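Bumping my old thread because nobody answered last time. Still need a sequence for this structure:
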């Protein structure tokens, strides 16, 4: 089964499975490369990354992937890529149809009709760093930049007048009121659109949608509405059918607000307790098997978390579907990591940031689990040169969706310039770990820093905005125990996270925390690895194989106590 949306009137084929592949090395001139010059003969598995395979581990270069598919003769199709990186060019029957570098973003490519049913798909993937070609993901990021088709690929047949998506925005959830926004997948001048809708597969009702810009919109009311919440994650499906096409989307009835220094879910204040999570595993990179995604969520539930920050890129839709079902609250963010002047002053970077952030909101808008949007993790929010992009990204998100708060993780709590634009103030800081003071165990920095951030927010007259610790953490090597409780020992991390989670759960001035981080994950393979022993970011509460460290029990107890 594919993730939502579903298209019940179309033939949809999941192309995941065994593909052919050839690794072309690290010297390819992409402008000259022709897939027809190669006969990929190696078998490989999609979703998958070539650079996690034992024979190609750590390679940076170009790989050509090939598979066949069937499409009804003389009918157009749509290839849906849920996530790949770093750069790709997509060919059908030898014709280049798309080229781009939007790591972790879901996007579609239209396949033109042909007389033959049998078609050939070639995907060229390149994972070499090159700011001009791949401005969104760079070598200095503290997470490994994998190469591959790391999420599912779907083929959808297209009718003449396809429906692209149906956005469902809860307006007054308790009264069952929703706004519908249909995105047609074809050009039209029509002012009205007639359709039938059914809720949860029940009786169909006729509805008239009215043209608004590029969309068709309508208001609708669900009878006997039941709210979505972490305790009771009630989901609805809606199927909208036109003469030619139908789409089934899944949604939940819930409201989110950020005001009076708190986050409200269904008008009740909620304390957000959880972790930042990378899609990562030593064997699979970000191409996680569904079972692993589910097990991660079971572990996070066991830890007493209700909140996950999807760091630092748009999330796998299968993960978001499970979060909807299991009642997690999610921060989804577009890809970004510590960008400075070179990026902010580059027009192509600016354009692609806006484009991928818009894509993220459009792709994920119906997930009730997503309660906030984010972007530009630890960007230069202390610099004036960053103002145009911060402003444009807030604008982009609000153009697409006003039903959720927008935020960004700032590493500059004393110099930030854009907090006034954010709905939630989110702070990434590492007192007690990256300590500037010369102490053996700088744990006592934590409470005083937490006091200072709040003082700063109040001083700036922003006390109405909720304050979230979007990252704080300490590293530990799994199974390294030490009576001295030295840095990197499981004991030091346990002391640190115990103190931090007790502080956050007892302070009403903080709306929550996403601890850095859920699991250890692979990062640098260059000299930066000197700060990242093993080439891993070791701040996980579980290691890369999800084995719990000592801190697990302490955090679990504190999170659970807070919710009791
Ligand atoms: C930053 C960053 C994380 C990670 C973390 C760390 O805050 O946002 O991705 O690199 O620091 O481990 O230092």
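Sorry it took so long. Here it is:
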């Amino acid at each position: 089964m594919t993730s939502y949306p579903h298209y019940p009137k179309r033939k949809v084929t999941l192309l995941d499975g065994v593909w052919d592949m050839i690794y072309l090395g690290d010297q390819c001139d992409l402008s000259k490369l022709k897939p027809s010059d190669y006969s990929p003969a190696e078998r490989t598995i999609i979703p998958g990354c070539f650079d996690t395979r034992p024979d190609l581990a750590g390679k940076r270069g170009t790989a050509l992937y090939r598979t066949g598919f069937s499409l009804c003769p003389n009918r157009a199709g749509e290839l849906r890529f849920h996530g790949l990186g770093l750069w790709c060019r997509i060919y059908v029957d030898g014709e280049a149809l798309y080229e781009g570098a939007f790591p972790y973003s879901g996007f579609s490519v239209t396949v033109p009709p042909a007389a033959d049913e049998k078609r050939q798909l070639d995907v060229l993937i390149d994972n070499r760093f090159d700011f001009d070609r791949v401005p969104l993901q760079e070598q200095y990021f503290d997470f490994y930049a994998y190469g591959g088709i790391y999420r599912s690929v779907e083929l959808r047949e297209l009718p003449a007048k396809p429906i692209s998506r149906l956005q469902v925005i809860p307006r007054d959830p308790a009264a069952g009121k929703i706004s519908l926004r249909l995105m047609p997948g074809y050009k039209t001048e029509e002012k009205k659109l007639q359709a039938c809708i059914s809720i949860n597969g029940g009786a169909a009702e006729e509805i008239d949608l009215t043209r608004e810009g590029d969309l068709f919109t309508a208001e609708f009311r669900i009878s006997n509405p039941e709210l979505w919440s972490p305790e009771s994650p009630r989901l609805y499906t809606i199927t909208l059918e036109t003469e030619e096409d139908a789409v089934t989307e899944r949604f939940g009835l819930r409201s989110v607000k950020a005001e009076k220094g708190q986050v409200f879910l269904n008008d009740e204040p909620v304390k957000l307790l959880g972790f930042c999570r990378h899609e990562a595993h030593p064997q699979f990179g970000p191409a996680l098997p569904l079972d692993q995604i589910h097990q991660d969520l079971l572990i996070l539930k066991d830890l007493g978390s209700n909140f996950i920050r999807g760091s630092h890129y748009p999330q796998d839709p299968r993960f978001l579907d499970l979060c909807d079902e299991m009642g997690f609250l999610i921060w989804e963010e577009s890809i970004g990591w510590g960008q400075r002047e070179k990026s902010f002053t580059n027009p192509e970077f600016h354009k692609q940031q806006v484009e991928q952030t818009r894509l993220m909101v459009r792709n994920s808008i119906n997930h009730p689990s997503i309660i906030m949007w984010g972007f530009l993790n630890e960007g230069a929010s202390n610099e004036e040169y960053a103002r145009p992009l911060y402003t444009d990204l807030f604008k982009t998100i609000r153009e697409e969706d006003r039903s959720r708060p927008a935020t960004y993780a700032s590493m500059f709590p004393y110099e930030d310039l854009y907090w006034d634009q954010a709905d939630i103030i989110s702070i990434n800081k590492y007192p007690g770990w990256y300590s500037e003071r010369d102490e053996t165990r700088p744990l006592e920095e934590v409470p005083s820093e937490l006091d200072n951030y709040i003082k700063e927010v109040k001083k700036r007259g922003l006390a109405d905005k909720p304050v979230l610790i979007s990252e704080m953490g300490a590293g530990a090597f799994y199974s390294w125990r030490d009576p001295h409780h030295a840095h990197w020992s499981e004991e030091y991390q346990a002391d640190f996270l115990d103190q931090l989670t007790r502080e956050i759960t007892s302070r009403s001035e903080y709306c929550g925390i996403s601890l850095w981080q859920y699991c250890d994950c692979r990062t640098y393979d260059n000299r930066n690895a000197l700060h990242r022993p093993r080439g891993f970011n070791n701040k996980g509460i579980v290691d890369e194989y999800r084995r719990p460290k000592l801190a697990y029990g302490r955090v679990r107890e504190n999170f659970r106590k807070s919710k009791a």
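Residues 12-157 form a domain with the Jelly Rolls fold (CATH 2.60.120.260). Let me know if any region looks off to you.
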